Hints:
The structure holds two protein chains of two kinds.
Chain A: H1 2-19, E1 44-45, E2 48-49, E3 73-78, E4 82-85, E5 94-98, E6 109-117, E7 123-128, E8 137-141, E9 145-151, E10 153-158, E11 163-168, E12 171-177, E13 179-181, E14 190-199, E15 209-216, E16 228-232, E17 242-245, E18 249-250, H2 253-262, E19 268-271
Parallel strand pairs in A: 10-19, 13-17, 16-18
Antiparallel strand pairs in A: 1-2, 3-6, 3-9, 4-5, 6-7, 7-8, 10-11, 11-12, 14-15, 14-19, 15-16
Chain B: H1 6-9, H2 14-23, H3 25-36, H4 49-53, H5 56-81, H6 90-114, E1 123-124, H7 133-154, H8 161-185, H9 200-210, E2 213-214, E3 221-222
Antiparallel strand pairs in B: 1-2
Helix pairs in contact in B: 2-3, 2-5, 5-6, 5-7, 6-8, 7-8
Amino acid sequence: MLAVASVLVASALLVGAFTSRSPSQRVTASSAPSRSSGGLSLDTIRGVAVPGPVKPAFAPSTPVLLPASDKLARWAVVRFAVPARSEPRTDAHVVATVAKRTPERTSNIVLVLGRKTDETGRLWTLIRLPVLPNNLTAWIPRSALGGYGVVRTHLVVVLQRLTATLYRNRRKIFRADVGVGQGAWPTPKGQFYIRNKLTGYSSPMYGPIAFGTSARSDVLTDWPAGGYIGIHGTDRPELLPGRVSHGCIRLRNPDILRLAELMPVGTPLTIR
Amino acid sequence: MSDLTLEQLDRDGAIQEGIADLYGHSRADFLRKAVVGGGVLIGALSVPPRVEAAAASDVRIFQFALNFEYLQSTFYTETERLGTIAGMAPRKALWARTLGAHERAHVAVIKKLLGPAAGRKPSFNFRGNTESENRFTRTAVAMEDLTTALLTGLTPNLQDRGLAAAAFSLMTVEARHAAWARHLVGVLPVASAFDEPKSLNGVDRIVASTRFISTLRARTTTTRNPRFTG
């Protein structure tokens, strides 16, 4: 206690020494009231007032720990074309080459599923591939990817019920009737993700907005741009719900517009 | 009001000159976008009175501090969300989680202080340093030491005493973060009797050398005609 008091006294004397160099700023005991009540007054030392703490410009906010059940999906941009391998090793079989751009010339993003460090210390990332056969995963070096983006949403399309449901933090936030592939051109089942968003184009058959997905038609393999499955609006709303498309998932235009407000690119997609 | 740009807000050019001083002209455009939100116009949003009254250099200092806090909070948050912290020993996990919570609180409070002048959060790519315990720990120790040196260098330059007091309250916490981090990795918690201040330029050069701040932005929207199967 005595030591603390000594330090405070010494500090006050130091302040006094500084203050004495600026007579205009000097405040004497007679002009500055002491806030101390009784005992040894440390607010005034030898007639020099020691100011109280300056009020900070902001009030501290409360630190918040992350919730334990934070369920997120992670995606990343492909920085350069890279071979995807069956195992996290440079000598493993090449499953496919992951391009830097999509057929729509947007940044190619991949869904990140896991990671592993090989024996040389190189970090590998397990990704979901946008290739045939559908549902394929493979490993690419972490260095081939940019920073991570995260989403809390998940779109589930149920072919039997002809519905699309969007969940955020596992809560249902959107549901709509859909059109899906006819018998000859079925919508593929499996785990996919939303790759990009197209809008402002001139083709009315896709409605006002189209999402590109990582799913590909198993049968229309020679379709221009690779036969990717889209989720889009329509100029034939009277056909929905139904099995009416070449594999794409069609929504009525008000529904696709609403979905576009809620669903970010990178959202995982389950078709079952 | 909706067409108010940084140039109009910053009529004497002080903010832009400062950004160029801090980052060099090559990065000034990038930072200008960061300050105004990538072209999002400040418009009718009101600047908090404290910031409106503050010297341009004070605002710049807090903008830089905010970007640095973004860097730290994203680093800890990503590490935790990737599960790297869950694999740590309990004492170390507590440290990492606590620091993450503190850095997020720092971001919240500085963002609120700056209002629209806070700008947009930069994109980060931690290049695997959030994905292994060793790399995370090494980076965290360096980051906390650097933050302390940064605030030691910046705080005396603040002209507004209230802002200086606020910066002090951050600095002392960051110094304890640094000591805690050093203690956990088994090095001397306090490296020397005095902390050496670092300049904004010096810290910026160090941050730039890590390449944690990413200039790669995902372009995921286009107006091209779809060629999906339909």
